[in-house]
Specification:
The protein is about 40% helix and about 20% strand. With about 850 residues, it is an alpha/beta fold. Strands 3-4-2-1-7-9-10-8 form an eight-stranded mixed β-sheet, with helices on both faces. A seven-stranded mixed β-sheet has the order 20-19-18-17-21-22-23, sandwiched between helices. It has a six-stranded antiparallel β-sheet with strand order 12-13-11-14-16-15. Helix 13 packs across helix 14. It is globular and about 100 Å long. The structure holds adenosine-5'-diphosphate, aspartic acid and magnesium ion (MG).
Length: about 850
């Protein structure tokens, strides 16, 4: 019997662990350290399940070309990994080609216009796990560890619920005894594809998204294993999803009930049913691939009362895409069995209810269900309460979509007073409205329902209210992985791509797409340095991206939606255009991208009802960094943010944020005439093609507005007071005429310069930003002051805060130019790539 194998160890490698050949080798090495009595479970390569599940959709829509292209890309990705693993063999490549032929056949059998078939979806999805099991097994054998793929459908037996099957434990345990034990006895490592199994009729089923975790714990249960290791791309179970809460911390030990509750309430790190039936003797660890020595998180049945007392709330989680159904009516008061009837109806309709809450007046009950089944749930309830509706005991059954559940979880909550109050206060401070509240009798979990848009903000606020960033298990380690999408490929964009290429060797950073106004070039595996150089040369000589080899003609919006169809790693959109890109940026945020801006417009734009880009980013749990929008590469935005994070209050920022105007006034001060100085600036490329853009002060006004908004200024661009340096009569004439008439203004400027000089002063174009006002305009300052001493195109900013009050922080340096601006962008990209 299985008892004798209690020293078995089940290792499960998630998608991130199997992203490419290097990752697969790394996983194999972990097993190779202790191969005795090891059993391996493989997930599909990262992102592959998502792509596979799209294929039947394309087939049904008869999008044959897109279908073929997606299959080819997948095949290519697997073949590249296979050839890197097995340097001089063909066996693995042959096996993979065979799998792809069968996959193409299955897809070919799907008729255009046919309706979705869950059995076919499962059959298609299964290829991902099967191929990575073959690759992992090959990698082990190459390393000298005897390993063998065992067909998962012959081991994991389940019911016939396609897409979310429930395992049949007794039959699975029998298959494990029959097929895995002999291999283990012969010192062969069995490699089993995760996520899949077979229905009683032999059809392939899947165990629900993330189901490889369940495969692993199921095998561990059947083997009575000593331990299960779930190897992931995170340090373990964290206090929150690190993609949403950047300062999430590792929880070194988690009680099994806490872990189950987190998994059930949406924490993707563990499959919701993975812990069911796990034996007490089996130790479960969620461990970091990037640091195989670390034990990560141990999920245990032992309680740690001291830790529970210190951290009554252990972690936060959220489930999005939910709908709330409200059943209300005066006639419900005091009538027994309403909730039971509602539950019964939903159970019969196959709808699982994530949360229920009833006001103590019994006037209403609300239930939360996934949006996808909201209509079904509504109809089932309407039928169940038909009589009550008719008699008007129940007045209405209303559905509200786009809500999310946020749950705080911790065993220590029961018996600790004030947890709920702290939770609600944190949410109120974040200015978010709570739609419904539920607390289970176990007091292991308090859930609140909030507007989906606020779900990220709520998690961060609650995380900090319960001081979870202090839990002491170490931070979510930084891994500098990111896929970069360049929006704009002009001079700055090209320089950013070049600089990225130089640092990319030591980090896993790839430019995967470049987009311009004509179209885009995209390769989900990353554009090579050489390819980027060729594209840059083409662009520099005036060729639009759409006209380059493999360039595609498209609007920026459709380019982005094409990019979003692929599974990218921590994607970052870099906007180096000068246009109105709000729609593209919104789509990027909604698609899970972080944003880096050199483009000022999105931050200076009218903020509208949704509160602008930064608000929207917060709501999506994404970040927007924009160092290069003010002072090019100078650390202005970063300094302001750091001061604010440290609790200082930034009161005022004053300075010269325009290299162009800085140059102009420097020259005027030296006695050069206005027309000569401006023409020189134009020749040197310091101005916009129409120099009135600079002289009007609007560029400086935008920078002032961006700074002001960081300090709480609530106005728009038209509430910035701007002094234009273009006299009224010159504002509407054509640009060439303006340029030819520059000499007419020389007299006026000479007078102004002389007047200032008579007071030992010089002219500067200055921006002053505060919470209450933003002003930009011409001033005369003492030649001996630091602003007066400013040279050439240098910028200067002085930052006055509560702490730096009498002696502000002053930052001076080159504030214009392609190389320094690109460096500012690059810093932001690295910051995002390293912080998640
Ligand atoms: P696997 O590669 O094994 O399939 P998953 O990708 O399913 O792993 O799970 C890991 C992901 O879960 C992380 O990248 C992280 O974004 C997410 N996650 C959500 N909540 C948590 C949490 N509390 N702790 C750790 N990771 C979390
Ligand atoms: N590959 C499957 C998924 O993406 C199963 C898993 O990763 O556990 O859901
Ligand atoms: Mg998973």
């Amino acid at each position: 019997m299985a008892r004798s194998t209690s020293s078995a160890t089940v290792h499960k490698f998630g998608g991130a662990a199997l992203a490419d050949a290097d990752a697969i080798r790394h996983a194999a090495q972990i097993v190779a350290k202790r191969p005795a009595r090891a059993v391996v479970v493989a997930s599909a390569m990262r992102g592959v399940t998502d792509v596979l599940l799209e294929l039947p959709v394309l087939a049904r829509r008869d999008e044959r070309q897109a279908l073929r292209q997606s299959i080819d890309e997948l095949r290519q990705r697997h073949l590249v990994a296979a050839s890197e693993l097995e340097e001089d063999g063909e066996e693995l490549a042959g096996a993979i080609n065979g799998e792809f032929e069968r996959l193409s056949e299955v897809l070919g059998s799907i008729g255009a216009g046919s309706s979705a078939d869950p059995a076919i979806n499962d059959a298609v999805a299964a290829y991902g796990e099967r191929m990575s099991a073959s690759m992992l097994s090959a990698a082990l054998n190459i390393m000298g560890v005897r390993a063998k793929v065992v067909d998962a459908t012959q081991i994991i037996r389940a019911d016939a619920t396609h897409g979310n099957a429930t395992p049949d434990f007794p039959r699975t345990a029998a298959a494990v005894n029959e097929q895995l034990l002999p291999l283990i006895g012969d010192q062969v490592v069995p490699v089993v594809a995760g996520f899949i199994g077979s229905a009683p009729n032999g059809a392939i089923v899947t165990l629900g998204r993330g189901g490889s975790d369940l495969t692993a714990t199921l095998l561990a249960r059947a083997l009575n294993a000593g331990s299960v290791m779930l190897w992931k791309d995170v340090p373990g179970v964290l206090t929150a999803d690190p993609q949403v809460v950047p300062d999430a911390r590792l929880v070194p030990r988690l009680h099994v009930r806490e872990a189950a509750e987190l998994a059930y309430y949406g924490a993707k790190v563990l499959h919701p049913r993975a812990l069911i039936g796990l034996r007490d003797e089996t130790r479960l660890f969620i461990r970091p691939l990037s640091n195989p020595e670390s034990l990560g998180t141990e999920v245990t049945t032992r309680r740690d009362k001291a830790a529970e007392k210190r951290y009554p709330v252990r972690a936060i989680t959220a489930i999005g895409s939910q709908a709330i159904i409200n059943i209300s009516g005066d006639g419900m008061v005091g009538v027994p069995g309403i909730a039971a009837r509602a539950f019964g109806a939903l159970e019969r309709a196959g709808v699982s209810v994530a949360l229920i809450s009833q006001a103590s007046s019994e006037h209403s009950i609300c239930l939360v269900v996934p949006t996808a089944v909201a209509a079904l749930a509504h109809d089932a309830l309407a039928a169940a309460f038909a009589q009550q509706l008719e008699r008007q005991e129940v007045e209405g059954i209303d559905v509200e979509k786009d809500v999310a559940i946020v749950a705080v979880v911790g065993l220590g909550m029961s018996g600790t007073r004030g947890v709920a109050a702290r939770l609600f206060a944190a949410i109120a401070d974040a200015e978010v409205n709570i739609i419904a509240i539920a607390q289970g009798a176990s007091e292991l979990n308090i859930s609140v329902v909030v507007d989906e848009k606020s779900v990220a903000a709520v998690q961060r606020a609650v995380h900090s209210a319960f001081r979870l960033d202090k839990i002491g298990g170490g931070a979510a380690t930084a891994s500098a992985n990111a896929d970069v999408v360049m929006l704009g490929f002009g001079r700055i964009g090209r320089e950013v791509a070049t600089q990225l290429g130089e640092v990319a060797r030591t980090r896993s950073l790839h430019v995967v797409a470049v987009i311009d106004s004509s179209g885009y070039v995209f390769d989900p595996r990353g554009l090579s340095k050489r390819r980027l150089a060729t594209l840059a040369a083409a662009k520099a000589s005036g060729t639009a991206l759409a006209n380059t080899p493999k360039g595609v003609r498209a609007s920026a919006e459709s380019a982005l939606s094409e990019v979003r169809r692929h599974a990218l790693t921590r994607p970052i959109l870099v906007d180096v255009t000068a246009g109105d890109t709000s729609a593209v940026l919104e789509a990027a945020l909604a698609g899970g991208m972080d944003i880096v801006l050199a483009n000022k417009n999105p931050l200076a734009a009218r903020r509208g009802r949704r509160g602008g880009l930064t608000r929207s980013a917060t709501a999506h749990g994404r970040r927007v960094l924009h160092e290069a929008t003010v002072g090019a590469g100078l650390p202005i935005i970063d300094t302001i943010s750091k001061l604010q994070e440290s609790g200082d209050k930034v009161l005022r920022i004053e300075g010269c944020p325009s290299g162009t105007l800085g140059y102009l006034f420097g020259e005027l001060g030296r006695g050069t005439s206005f027309s000569t100085a401006l023409r020189a600036a134009m020749t040197l490329g310091y101005t916009e093609p129409d120099p009135r853009e600079d002289l009007s002060g609007m560029d400086v006004a935008r920078k002032g507005l961006i700074l002001g908004r960081m300090l709480g200024f609530s106005g728009e661009l038209d509430s910035v007071s701007v002094e234009s340096l273009v006299p009224v009569e010159y504002r509407d004439i054509p640009a060439p005429e303006f340029i030819s008439r520059l000499d007419e203004m020389d007299g006026l400027w000479r007078e102004r310069v002389e007047e200032a000089r008579s007071h030992d002063s010089v002219l500067r174009y200055r921006a002053t930003a505060g919470r209450d006002s933003v002003r930009v305009g011409l001033v005369a300052v003492s030649a001996a002051s630091s602003l007066g001493a400013l040279m050439g195109t240098d910028n200067q900013f002085s930052i006055t805060t509560s702490r730096y009050h009498d002696n502000p922080i002053v930052i001076t340096g080159p504030g214009a130019g392609v190389a320094v601006t690109a460096a500012g962008v690059l810093n932001d990209v690295l910051k995002l790539a390293g912080s998640r």
